[in-house]
Amino acid sequence: MLGFVVRILLLGAGIIAGWLIPRDDAGFAVVEFVIVLVFFALASVAILYVPKLWARWKERK
């Protein structure tokens, strides 16, 4: 399961890094890794805070 999540993150990061620099550039892997770290941080924040925000939103209804 974790391998599947990592593969999806790397796929998205590879697409975005491909927009920024060419694939044959030496820094492509570094840029891709930084983008994966940003994706991971955003996903972690979403996993932590979305349930709380969702519960608060449902209370207002």
Task: List the SSEs and their pairings.
Elements lengths: L1 H19 L7 H33 L1
Helix pairs in contact: 1-2
Describe the protein.
The protein has one domain (2-60). The chain has helices at residues 2-20, 28-60. It has two helices and no strands. It has 61 residues and is mainly alpha-helical.
Please provide a brief summary of the model:
The chain has one domain (2-60). The chain is mainly alpha-helical and 61 residues long. The N and C termini lie far apart (36 Å).
Query: Which residue ranges are poorly predicted, with pLDDT under 50 across at least 5 consecutive positions?
Result: none
In what range is the share of β-strand residues?
A: under 5%
H/E topology pattern: HH
Shape category: elongated
Q: Classify the helix fraction into a percent range.
A: over 70%
Tally of individual helices: 2
Radius of gyration over all CA atoms, rounded: 16 Å
Number of strands: 0
Number of domains: 1
Q: For this entry, what is the oligomeric state of its chains? A: single chain
Q: What structural class do the secondary elements suggest?
A: mainly alpha
Distance between the termini: 36 Å
Task: Tell me, rounded to a whole number, the average pLDDT.
Answer: 89
Biggest sheet character? none
